[in-house]
Fold this protein.
Amino acid sequence: MPPSSVRGQDSDPRVDAAERGGAGHGRAETGHSDVWAHVEDAGPTHVEARRREAGHGEAEAGYAEREGGPRDGTQRDGNLCDDARGGNAARTRLVVATGNPGKLREFQALLADLPFDIVAQTELGVAAPEETGATFLENALLKARHAAAATHNAAIADDSGLEVDALDGAPGIYSARYAGVGADDAANNAKLLAALRGVPAAQRRARYRCVQVFVAGPAAPAPATAEGVWEGCIVDSPRGSAGFGYDPHFWLPDLRMTAAELDPAEKNRRSHRGMALRALRERLLARELSAGG
């Protein structure tokens, strides 16, 4: 299993293709600490969860100058790293394209040291769009663009889910609605365990995958993207009360506990979302510092 790594490129037309719904997103398996920086060529629209190739992760299709925004939501020029160069940081509203309080808390914790006023789209009266993408990347792009267009602010979105090898990558992009539209965590977990009934523990390998997208504003042409993957397996008996989603059943063999037993800081350090967001954060910082000389 390759060591933890991050790599990237400045521009990739395949992200544009994904925005048009025409690019598949590779589903390579990686180790729990792997986060890379590219988007693979078009491929199958379902998760190739059984692949045993090198992992992949962050992709970036260039990054336009980010437009800052005062608290009233109108846009103005700003720079993410004024404070890093000794100036006064201009606070920028960043809309998180989610109504999930667990996700929002993770975004707030992982971006706490950046000059963002982070707000969930639901706090601004923005409803989630229909997720019509065939891949995590397509859905994340769709959600980020929707939030930015509705609020005229910078926006960040992710699409994430659980991939189980024994289920050919399911529930995958349908993780949040595995038991049906509007299903809660309990219903989704019940369906997952039912689908795995009789499957030996050794064949219950799984992973969380997260693709994140940042857009600087509604007209920004080039989103920045990143991906993180977290390896584990599925256990029948739930353990832990922290986390959300499938966390109580997501067993981490190296720690001998589930994701729901981790404290929030440790989960953010290890999780698929934490890996993806840190990679995205570093790319945005590097671009802003470069633009500012």
Notes: The chain has one domain: 13-292.
